[in-house]
Amino acid sequence: MTVLEQMGERAKKASRVLATAGGKKSEALTAIAKALRDEREKIKAANAEDIENGRKAGLRESLIDRLLLTDARIDGMAEGCEQVAALPDPIGETLSGRVLENGLEIRKVRVPMGVIGIIFEARPNVTADAAALCLKAGSAVILRGGKEAINSNKSIAEVMRRAVASAGLPEDSIQLVEDTSRQSSVEMMGLSEYLDVLIPRGGAGLIRAVVENSKVPVIETGVGNCHVYVDESGDPDMAANIIFNAKTSRPSVCNAIETVLVHKNAAEKALPLIKARLDEKSVEIHGCERTRAILGKCIIPATEDDWYTEYLDLKLAIRVVDSLEDAMEHIAKYSSGHSECIVTENYENARIFTSGVDSAAVYVNASTRFTDGGEFGLGAEIGISTQKLHARGPMGLNELTSMKFIINGNGQIR
Amino acid sequence: MTVLEQMGERAKKASRVLATAGGKKSEALTAIAKALRDEREKIKAANAEDIENGRKAGLRESLIDRLLLTDARIDGMAEGCEQVAALPDPIGETLSGRVLENGLEIRKVRVPMGVIGIIFEARPNVTADAAALCLKAGSAVILRGGKEAINSNKSIAEVMRRAVASAGLPEDSIQLVEDTSRQSSVEMMGLSEYLDVLIPRGGAGLIRAVVENSKVPVIETGVGNCHVYVDESGDPDMAANIIFNAKTSRPSVCNAIETVLVHKNAAEKALPLIKARLDEKSVEIHGCERTRAILGKCIIPATEDDWYTEYLDLKLAIRVVDSLEDAMEHIAKYSSGHSECIVTENYENARIFTSGVDSAAVYVNASTRFTDGGEFGLGAEIGISTQKLHARGPMGLNELTSMKFIINGNGQIR
Prior knowledge:
2 copies of one chain form a homodimer. By secondary structure, chain A is an alpha/beta fold. The first copy, chain A, folds into 2 domains: about 5-220 and about 390-410, Aldehyde Dehydrogenase, Chain A, domain 1 (3-Layer(aba) Sandwich); about 225-370, Aldehyde Dehydrogenase, Chain A, domain 2 (3-Layer(aba) Sandwich). Chain A has helices at about 5-20, 25-40, 40-55, 60-65, 70-85, 125-135, 150-165, 180-190, 205-215, 235-250, 265-280, 290-295, 305-310, 325-335, 345-355, and strands at about 95-100, 105-110, 115-120, 140-145, 175, 195-200, 225-230, 255-265, 285, 300, 315-320, 340-345, 360-365, 385, 395, 400-410. In chain A, helix 10 (about 235-250) links the parallel strand 7 (about 225-230) and strand 8. The two termini of chain A are about 45 Å apart. In chain A, about 55% of the residues are buried. At the A-B interface, helix 10, helix 15, strand 13 and strand 16 of A face helix 10, helix 15, strand 13 and strand 16 of B. Strand 13 (about 360-365) of chain A pairs parallel with strand 16 of chain B, so a sheet runs across the interface.
């Protein structure tokens, strides 16, 4: 048995205890929060090693910042655990139920997934956030983080494991893969005997690699090539306001927009207003020829590649389209299926757009930045699913669970 | 572009029409039912070719029987389409909805999956049954059947496609892969750009191959290593009756049982009763040593392999266990997670078994043969999922759909 298979076996065993652990899960989360605060110096010391190694390895300053664990960030992890502890337990919920004509009482109830694998990249706080959600959802978790954060991750996992044990639950409810070589990640994708689901959290490259190679069922998260379409009847000021917010409030996140589509009859009036707002934050615009005809040749000509690109930066592509249908055609072709918005005052166009656009979240007259577990009222989220199987959009506790049928009879045969 | 990629592109285009086709889907299904009946002679002629080829190739008689399309089976396919037509349309259902504090109206609505791929084996009626369910669920379907049934499948698909077109929907809503080489099936597993989900229907080998190799999300169906556990307090007559029904009423299906576990204190009384019933149909018993000590050395000694085997035949493994916990341990280790039953009169043991056994359907005092879409009231089923992601247990129309969020605002930004 490989190290990972052994971890899988231990996780499976722990998951059977967690499945019926009830209120003990919240006690464990409260204990974790306390332990994270109490042992912050130890965690910060481990993190300092990662930071030092990162600097030696010449990591970009933005990556160093994502690695860094400050007091505020450790408090944030602890608070996150407390918030998850306070959420209602999803396990055991009766989703539906009835009595069949033969007297069988049948109920569909929410049960844990079992063992959840998470492969993630640089940010060490994912260790605590993801483990807390999995624990509350009644599943054991095997975490495999990036090598840059290995010392921080080990320290956090150790603190959490001890706290879980102190609350009377198996410490193997939370396990961290210490081998951060590519091999361990590949092996994890083949661990279908032990893992019920694998969730990659990170950049497009990581997600693609997992989707293409995993034998374990995957939930695809995060890639967001999002659009705002300004309809002929759209209010130009509202459009500029929504576009400014959706592009610039946090350009590095998946619910930020990357391309704006403008109806040809709205372009003349709306484009200068949009540009004026974007100029406030020096957003670099890549425009189609018709956009450049209105905004000037200073606009970078957009190429086919631009329509596919998730800039995650202060850059935006703009295209003038002939009709609502053309806008929807563009979205169907280039979108990653995350979030799209139409700005319109036309009832029928709003209806056509919301029913016809096939993305996780479809907006009328609102910023795509709202696509978020917290904003949608899910309490906490493990990521935003861009696939159609199992979960779509922000994934909260319910999306980390499965269901089963329980049937009570008194001797029925078929 | 390969032939399959072209089919994928056409399916995607068709799926966008189907997504908002509403009542036209049922009209198309009614037209299909009529066409299947009207063109039965053509279908039977194509089927006769398959039967002849099958005999030449020396197919087993049981396989020939599965291939055969009689008038009754064609009527069955047509009636199946009419039944699906009569089911309520799952698409557009509001699953939840609320108004957020900022005034955003958010709704979670049921939407089609998009394009569904189905890989299946010998039975040609799957072509009609599966296509009908996918169509009603608003998705285009690409079917890839076995080579033995290719002429029948082509004929059925052609009839269906013409009927769909006559109802004003795209004929590419239903497509059949005509290449039945291994290569086409492998290529289908890589078609993630076009397929939203891939469902294998067939034997354990096919399912394993698809699960291990597909880059498209898979729903695993059908393998059923199911158990009945006779608890210390279980009524021996009820146990014998349930075991007889669950083993012998249709041994070749996935909800039939393969292993019986008996509490040591119930064994002495229950085992002879169980054997007496099984003898009526000459069921071959593979027993553990304690079983053989009670039933006699004529019982075949069970090996480790027996606990893992889905016989799909008039064979049954029997093991005497020391406790409820040991029974649950056995099930956790050997079960395929399909259906399990406890026969008991003890309230607490029923509770422990139903909450602790991690299978799609967990029964108290009833035959596992009830695990079926029709029996559960889903109207029709595409298979029985034994995985935990997306769908578990019998999959009806709802399990063939996805969801999205629609958010209506009036200028909200974050």
